[in-house]
Design brief:
GO terms for molecular function: ATP binding; protein serine/threonine kinase activity. It contains 8 helices and 7 strands. The protein is of the alpha+beta class.
């Protein structure tokens, strides 16, 4: 539910939503209506799912192979949204569902409440989860869509490998990323690519997608 009944919010959730109901990584908009000046979005509700936050609560840290499998799907989902002109803006543990309808958990992305159209220009208003905001937002009050998405993907990967509740941008800015020495070189590389403090040094989605470390088991 949103108090701003902007056509942009409807467009981001529907017209820009890739794929048909049940086939897209991003959950689909089924309907929308106004109630007392508030915009109500009726979204697809996948079955046999739990969010990544609950999954990590139950399992603790994930094995590297599973964490990379989930990250790979998240990178593909982020690329798909960007190709459709969508910036999610709040890729956090609670906004990632794992659907258990097959042998391999399938990633579904929910909650486009902080979403907007993807642009190359800088943004000066951030409405996502503060713990997953990129360093440049805290330092300069500005951020760009691409590097922010990659930072948030790094936060998700860090959480999968270290346990939920361990990732916070301010903590990483002042204390470092607390990367376990037990992690493989591939996982350390992926974390370094995503969590570079300087957005200009951060990997792009294309670089992540093409990175051999993301495909190796």
């Amino acid at each position: 539910m949103f108090s701003d009944s902007s056509p942009e919010q409807i467009s981001v959730s529907s017209g820009k939503n890739p794929g048909s109901v049940g086939r897209s990584t991003v959950v689909s908009l089924l309907d929308w209506f106004l109630l007392d000046g508030k915009l109500i979005l009726v979204m697809e509700r996948p079955v046999h799912t739990c969010d990544l936050h609950k999954y990590l609560q139950d399992k603790g840290c994930l094995e590297e192979r599973e964490a990379k499998m989930i990250l790979r799907q998240l990178v593909d989902a982020a690329m798909d949204m960007r190709c459709k002109g969508v910036f999610h803006g709040d890729m956090t543990l609670q906004n990632v569902l794992l659907e258990f309808s097959g042998w391999v958990p399938r990633v579904r992305v929910i909650n486009l409440g902080c979403g907007t159209f993807s642009t190359e220009s800088s943004h000066c208003s951030y409405s996502g989860t503060p713990a997953f905001a990129p360093p440049e937002w805290f330092l300069n009050g500005m951020y760009c869509c691409g590097p922010t998405t990659v930072w948030q993907l790094g936060g998700l990967f860090h959480s999968m490998l270290n346990g939920q509740g361990r990732f916070s941008t301010p903590t990483i800015m002042y204390k470092g990323a607390d990367i376990s020495r037990k992690l493989s070189a591939d996982c350390k590389m992926l974390l370094d690519m995503c969590l570079a403090r300087d957005p200009a040094q951060r990997a792009t989605l294309e670089e992540l997608q093409a990175c051999p470390a993301l495909s190796r088991h």
